[in-house]
Amino acid sequence: MSHLPERKEKNCLNCGTTVVGKYCHNCGQENIEPKESVWHLISHFFNDVTHFDGKFFTSLKDLLLRPGFLSKEYMLGRRMSFLNPIRMYLFTSFVFFLIFFSLYKVDENIVVVGINKDNIDKIDSTDLKELSNLNNGKPLTKEALGRQFDSSSITLTPTKYKSKKEYDSLLSAGVIKDNWFKKMLVYKSIQINEKYRYNKRLAMAKIVDKIQHSIPQMLFVLLPLFALLLKLLYIRRKAFYYTDHAIFAIHFYIFVFIAMLLIFGISKIISLTGLSWLQYINIALVLIIFYYLYKAMRNFYRQSRIKTFFKYLLLLGSFSFVGIFLFTLFLFISLFEI
Fold this sequence. Notes:
Helix content is 63%, strand content 0%. It is built from 13 helices and no strands.
């Protein structure tokens, strides 16, 4: 409901129907003054996204303290008192990834093979310009290179094939007999070495950054697969449709997002204060995530503890397998995109 004043006129501004009461019975639009302040526009946006009129906090409380309850209520059709799970998922995932990408940034400062404190002076302006282009366009100076190239510098050991031409000639001569997959990896390794000048640190930073930015897509793909695994585990429960399992999966995802935000916050406090004992809280939060899943399955599907625990273990095992497979797939995609 809007906090803007009600119009004295009784014609609906949307469809022209005569309004009886505050809402148009024909199209449902509220009969209020059309002029809005900036503050009202902003608050209206947050109301639309999260229903801060009470639904959000009610849903959040039940989600955190009553595992499986929201999913059960949604399945039974009692939905008006709670925030729509899709809307809640979009809001929490947005906040989660906003904070995640703010806290975890990949250091892409480069380290170049063959450069050390003894020969940095030999680098000319052309070399510095070329190295800056490799370094995401960030300007480099000899002083900056001197700070980077110490005994802790990590570099990529070159492959035994210095170029694609050399590798192809060995293949043609029959000296090596690699299969198509091995050849694909060698070609990519040579390409990465040439592109990043045998710089392991920069190449790994690029790969890690690519994988990090693939996490939202990875989790999005895993969500329907998670629901599918639940469908298979409870295939004999005809009352549960795939969409019911999907809603359960969404609510669990939301809980994980919230728990992980707490873990991120505690980790940041630890890095700033050095209070290492706070790590025990993070460990407890991880254990709570696993316990929450079991408790939610028990409350939502209403089976015995033994059955629920057995299916819980099957779910963890199968989901881990699917997750590892998907991560490997995204890793290869990231490797071939850098």
